[in-house]
Write the structure tokens for this entry.
Amino acid sequence: MKPETNSWEYVASFDHLDPRDDFCIVANGNFIYFIGGRECCGHTSTILTDVDRFELSRKQWDKAADTQMLKLWASGAAVNEKVYVTAPSAASKSPYHWEVYDETTMNGRLLRASEMDWDAIIFIFWPFMVSCIAWT
């Protein structure tokens, strides 16, 4: 949206995301992240660790570091140049697992709940999904 003209502007094609659904979208500064989801092909689907990001200033797609665990129905929030993501986990004893991606180092890692920046993020739990709200 261009506020000065009160009109929408074409930014980029998202066609390469077409076979993908149930992914998480997080906006952080100059980037929009598309995290996890699943890719469907006929009657089969594959849960993904893929992270793609779109840089607004260059209008260009980049590949970011993959998540360490599969992400389906994930939720995320961005705070202080970090993207926090959580998703239901069938592979662990914890009902949800947490990861953080640091834009300054371009690395992602799993987090324990004790490492979460709880002052910056509130996770709202719903029956089958998690929504995130962030503030600074």
Notes: Confidence is low (pLDDT under 50) at residues 124-129. The chain has no helices and 13 strands.
